Every structure is written in C-alpha cells, then in structure tokens.
C-alpha cells in the first residue's frame, strides 16, 4: 500500500545541490537500527534493522501489510518512528527533513497532482537549479508528446512515468520507488527498468518496494524479505533462491524407455534426489548440478535428445513463497506494550 503526496520531491523551493555523481558519499546511505512503528497500538514495523550502501539497489519484498511502505515512509520523514534510529545520508529524516528533501527522490504509487497541472508545469514546479534536461527526461519516459496534457488526462501508466520523471529530475542521491511499474505496459516496464539500471550505473542508490519479483530479480543487488514488520531474510536474489528454493526438476519423455534400469541409472547421478516415471514421462528432482549430469547422461545414452526436455528452476517468487510459508509460525503481530 502506498500513500501520501510527493512530499520528498525537491519542489524547486530551495536550491538543488550539485550533481550527486560528483559528491563523495562516505558511509552507508541508509542505516536503520531497531525501527519500530505502530498504528493504533498494533506494531507494523517491529525492531527492524536495515543497511543500504552507496550505489546499491535494494528491494523490499514480502507479504501484503508486511510494513514495507511504512518503513520507506519513515526513511522519508513522512512517518515518525515510535523508536529506533534512522539515518539517511547521515541525517535524521524527521529532524533534518529540509536538508534531506534536496537529496532524496521519491515515487509513491498514490501520489497526486492537481488535475489541471500540465506535464511541463509539473516538471517546472519540481525542478531545482541543477535539474536534468527536462525535455530529454520526458522523451526518455515516453512523455514528450504529452508535455501539454493536464494531469487528469494522463493514463495510470503515464502518471506513473511522470512521477518517476519528477523523482529523478533533481539527480537525487537516494531514490525511493514504491510499486515502480504498477500499471505500466510491458514495453514501458522494460524502459523503466533500463532507466533504473542506468541510475545504478551512475552511482545512485535505489530502494525499491515491489511485489514484482521478476523486477526485483532483474534490478536488485540485494533483497530484504519482510513479514509482519520483521526481516525474514536478505541477500542477493540468487542467495535467497539457493537458501529457500534450491531444488530443480528435469522432465522429459523417453519413448520406449520404461523400466527400472533407467530409473536406477538416473538415481545414481550426482545431485539427483528423486526419480519418478509415469509411462514414458520421466521427472528428476535434485540439486542444480543434477541438470548437467542428467544432460550428459541423456547425450551419452544414445537416445535422441527429447524434444520435450524441460528444466524447472525456481525463481525468487518460489523462494519468497517458501520463506513466507516457513515463517507462518512467527508470533502474532505484536501489540504495543502498555
Ligand atoms: N495510516 C495507517 N493507519 C493505520 N494502519 C495503517 C496505516 N498505514 C498502514 N497501516 C497498516 O500497517 C500495516 C503495514 O502497512 P504497509 O503499507 O507498511 O505494508 P506493505 O508491506 O507496504 O503492504 P503492501 O504490500 O500491501 O503494500 C498494514 O496492516 C496496514 O493496514
């Protein structure tokens, strides 16, 4: 869930700092220790620790209501934590909000702009002294021909792209993107992905809140999986897959190959855990190395390589599902101690 107005965009009210690429960032961009936030006595972020280094793209993923948006809202100073310490670029997001506003760009899903505000007017309103080339940015996000369109006339995806333009306009050092590509068509989604990859190449730190796990897998160097306000696990997408969904399945049909001899041979291959066979259809479950050994066995066996040969490799979604499933024994959401 995303709420709020684009309060952390640099609205052009104050001078924008020099280009972030030329600034020296020492230390972490985000440090969170023991963050706790509750609503109406219900703890929704529970003693959370988080660390984001300069130039990283970190994804917050997890179940609905896990506290991801609340966490990034606290980082932006839009929510005041009950307890814990937050430093963003070394600053306190609540007490030093003015200094931080110049350096953090946000794209929030449900942000709004006045209906009659035209695209160029919105860009002018938010542009600081050192803003990027506005026309180039609008073209890059496919909004060039909509320069004169009022906000109310934009489609959901176009609004989303405009918010992204506004978030990037002033070359922020940290960009927070919540549900980045929701509502975008597949081509626009890829364009936005490449824009984020470009940000990374330029050294911008990015925090991404997303349910799109292919997006997290494509863009994030590290993902933090959350449930009930707590971090369940974190690591590179590949590490989470290896830890929580390590198995693969190789399937193929081998006409006329029935019988236990083949099963026995496959069973003995390194990495194979289980072989099942139904008529001509063979399914082999095992570790990743089993893929190579089964392939080698197939070639060496002299059978033609089966046309229906298929390998199912788990992805981040499988890993997260397992992780969420395993964590159902977490204690119920905490109530604030009275
Ligand atoms: N202003 C609020 N008042 C009361 N409860 C709130 C408020 N904002 C969020 N919550 C609740 O806090 C919990 C965490 O919400 P949050 O939006 O941070 O989770 P999320 O992980 O971003 O969820 P989603 O993936 O569904 O967007 C939810 O149960 C939500 O209903």
UniProtKB/TrEMBL annotation:
Gene Ontology biological process terms in this record = response to antibiotic
Task: Give all residue intervals belonging to the ABC transporter domain.
Answer: 30-253
Compartments reported by the entry: Cell membrane
Presence of the UniProt keyword tRNA processing in the record: no
Q: Which GO terms describe its molecular function?
A: ATP binding; ATP hydrolysis activity
Coiled-coil-forming residues are none
**Alphabetized PROSITE patterns for the sequence:** ABC_TRANSPORTER_1 (PS00211), ABC_TRANSPORTER_2 (PS50893)
Give membrane topology per the record. Answer: Peripheral membrane protein
UniProt keyword ATP-binding, yes or no: yes
Q: Which GO CC annotations does the UniProt entry carry?
A: plasma membrane
Q: One Pfam family, short name please?
A: ABC_tran
Which domain of life does this protein belong to? Answer: Bacteria
**Region (Disordered) location:** 1-20
- What are the record keywords, sorted? Antibiotic resistance, ATP-binding, Nucleotide-binding, Transport
- Quote the protein name from its UniProt record: ABC transporter ATP-binding protein
Question: From which lineage does this chain's organism come?
Answer: Bacteria, Bacillati, Actinomycetota, Actinomycetes, Propionibacteriales
């Amino acid at each position: 869930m995303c709420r709020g107005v684009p309060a952390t965009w640099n609205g052009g009210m104050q001078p924008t700092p020099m280009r972030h690429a030329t600034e020296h960032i020492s230390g972490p961009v985000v440090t969170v220790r023991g963050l706790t936030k509750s609503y109406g006595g219900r703890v929704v972020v529970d003693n959370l620790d988080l660390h984001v280094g300069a130039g990283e793209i970190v994804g917050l993923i997890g179940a609905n209501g896990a506290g991801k948006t609340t966490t990034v809202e606290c980082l932006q100073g839009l929510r005041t934590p009950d307890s814990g310490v937050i430093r963003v670029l070394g600053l306190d997001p609540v007490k030093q909000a003015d200094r931080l506003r110049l350096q953090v760009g946000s794209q929030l899903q449900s942000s709004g702009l006045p209906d009659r505000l035209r695209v160029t007017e919105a860009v002018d309103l938010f542009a600081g002294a050192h803003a990027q080339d506005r026309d180039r940015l609008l073209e890059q996000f496919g909004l060039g021909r909509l320069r004169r369109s009022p906000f109310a006339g934009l489609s959901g995806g176009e609004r989303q792209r405009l918010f992204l333009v506004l978030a990037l306009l002033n070359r922020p050092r940290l960009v927070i993107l919540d549900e980045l590509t929701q509502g975008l068509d597949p081509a626009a989604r890829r364009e936005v992905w490449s824009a984020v990859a470009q940000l990374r190449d330029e050294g911008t730190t990015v925090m991404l809140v997303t349910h799109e796990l292919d997006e997290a897998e494509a863009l994030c160097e590290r993902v933090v999986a959350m449930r009930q306000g707590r971090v369940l696990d974190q690591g590179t997408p590949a590490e989470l897959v290896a830890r929580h969904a390590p198995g693969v399945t190789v399937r193929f049909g081998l006409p006329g190959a029935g019988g236990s001899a083949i099963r026995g041979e496959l069973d003995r291959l390194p990495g194979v855990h289980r072989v099942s066979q139904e008529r001509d259809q063979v399914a082999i479950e095992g570790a990743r190395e089993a893929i190579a050994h089964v392939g080698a066995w197939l070639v060496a066996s002299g059978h033609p390589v089966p046309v229906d040969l298929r390998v199912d490799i788990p992805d981040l979604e499988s890993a997260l599902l397992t992780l969420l499933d395993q964590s159902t024994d977490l204690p119920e959401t905490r109530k604030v101690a009275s």
